[in-house]
């Protein structure tokens, strides 16, 4: 009779070991699956942002007019296409001419920049470091890692546009499918979280597009006043790249400084000051004002997310790190923080 409890205890211990091992194996499989599919999830998020853009315009028109959703969505899509086509028709030739001129002048501007650098010992050190990195292949390796895509650039764009089109046309079909995966008693909460995610992404995207437009206008005015050639093309590059936090403005500054350097170093310094001023205004005045009701994400957290996600997904991770962090923060708040606060409040 005394041996029976020991046998049960031994059997119970072995069972716990198997259960623990099974749990760790399941977690490992899920993590490997997540890593393998993360690049695809990023593209789905990009497509979702396109759908959020069109749905946001559609809801705004519906709110103002009371028209049906199908009609407002058609107006949203066709109106966007017509506006972009009109802009291209008005200034497309000038933009194309300046972009072509910019691409042709970049080799000579690089050579001018190298010559200016070699005039000082600091510049010579920088030039030697760049040459060494290029010779060792490290620079190429870094660029290939951070600027790779999932299915190639055209393939990625096709997936993004296709997902965006389907989500724009029938969003409720997909949200209903997600809610069916949740137990019936939790579907109300799931609906609330999906609504919160959609509203948060819509607010962020609205603020981002507005900030990009303001950066384009301010940069265009500044470059035109300074007298920098190809100012319109450079301003458009600055506006578009402002979508990428932290790294985008720095990348946009490079061609502008190189073009200004082809005139003289003083102009290049003024251009650097202009870009820094525009980014200061955008980061401290424009974006906080537009997104004042949005969840605040610390800049250091965005940079960390960009670097970490870029390791797995390349350029799309750098571009979409902010909406990824926004989604994660909303999910953590709605699924963990708020329930814990409510629980503590009721227990108190």
Automatic annotation (TrEMBL):
Its main location: membrane. It is found in: Membrane. Pfam families: AI-2E_transport (PF01594). InterPro entries: AI-2E-like. Belongs to the autoinducer-2 exporter (AI-2E) (TC 2.A.86) family. Keywords: Membrane, Transmembrane, Transmembrane helix. This is AI-2E family transporter. The keyword Transmembrane helix applies. It is a multi-pass membrane protein. The keyword Transmembrane applies. The chain crosses the membrane at residues 12-34, 40-58, 70-92, 157-175, 209-237, 268-287, 307-332.
